[in-house]
Amino acid sequence: MKWTKQRLNNLFFILGVAACVVMLLTFDVSFVELWQHLCHAGYWLIPIIGVWLFVYGLNAMAWLSIIKGNCKGDDAITEKLSSRRFFWRIYRLTITGYALNYATPVGGLGGEPYRIMELSKDIDNQHATSSVILYAMMHFFAHFWFWFISIFIYLVLVVIGDLPITTAIGIILGIIVVFCLLAFYLFSQGYRNGLVKYVLGVISRIPGLKKWTLRFWVRHSEAITNIDQQIAALYSQDTRAFYRSLVLEYFSRVVQSSEVMFMLLLFGIDCGGGLGGLTLTFLHSILIVSFTTLFANLIGFLPMQLGVQEGGFVLSIAALGLSAALGIFVSIICRVREIIWIAIGMALMKLKE
């Protein structure tokens, strides 16, 4: 059976709806306890959910920057990409793509095929593929910068006497620094030389996949070479677009930390209040999100990262000397937020333009 774009769209939609149902049925608390947590959150749910309008806005601008840099030189496409209508289309695809990413295993890569399929309606398939791959790379690249800079935020808070430092903590921080530096090197190689050919080379070493990889290369060698050239070209020829996208992606994670700060404030945790107290609370929120996302991405093959995100929040909040009960509350409210945004993403998927 030939898979049309409409059939694929319906498949992605069913996948997202199924994910919402599974997430609702796999809460570690009863629906009575869940309702109690939601009532405790009260009106704070509005900014907790609403902050993601800005997070996704920054993500969309980062992706659009990559698309423009990748398609630079084609005046007809560039004019189309500059329209306000196209930005809102990218914004919609960003929300829907991340909704699918939440729903799928293998490191949350379910949204990328959907984005390629939809973006290829606006630009040629090779540029759509390379733009989506470049954005996925940038998304992960910014993660490493977020974790890396968070180490220095922690050390600054240690210096001012706000957080403790032990031998064990020092070793963990050192391992994370080495991990991030290694990732920076690998990403730099991928940006300079392209990534698709390298990934196919890795796949060919997996038992049973060598023949499939060779057949795929023979059929698509020209397209793969062009995509890798486009990936390398953005890094070498349009550095402004590259770094603009990186900064936007990084700050999307900083803005994301606001939802945790709102929940800390809900529990009366404001580090003494005032501007200084709120600043410390926000920095603590960044560290909580940083550790949790690191933990979740290390075990990112689980569908919807079930149990991983919750454990990450509990551990990271406990590491800052806060109660485990607060960690459970934060994880549950964040899971509710994910379900709401998955539902919004699925609804946007069926929105006719």
How would you describe what is shown here?
- With 353 residues, the chain is mainly α.
- 80% of the residues lie in helices and 0% in strands.
- Helix 3 runs antiparallel to helix 11, helix 7 packs antiparallel against helix 8 and helix 13 packs across helix 14.
- About 1% of the residues have low confidence.
Helices and strands in order:
Blueprint: H1 5-25, H2 31-41, H3 45-70, H4 75-81, H5 84-103, H6 111-119, H7 125-159, H8 167-193, H9 196-204, H10 210-237, H11 239-266, H12 274-298, H13 308-319, H14 324-349
Helix pairs in contact: 1-5, 1-14, 3-5, 3-7, 3-11, 5-6, 5-14, 6-7, 7-8, 7-10, 7-11, 7-12, 8-10, 9-10, 11-12, 11-14, 12-13, 13-14
In a few lines, what is going on in this structure?
With 353 residues, the chain is an all-alpha fold. About 1% of the residues have low confidence.
Features:
353 residues, mainly alpha, 14 helices, 80% helix, globular
Oligomer: single chain
Termini, distance in Å?
27 Å
Which residues form runs of ≥5 with pLDDT under 50? 301-305
Residue fraction in strands: under 5%
Summarize the helix and strand pattern as letters. Answer: HHHHHHHHHHHHHH
**Total number of helical segments?**
14
Task: Output the radius of gyration.
Answer: 21 Å
> How many strand elements?
0
Note the main sheet. none
Secondary structure class reads: mainly alpha
Helix share of residues? over 70%
Mean pLDDT: 79
Shape: globular
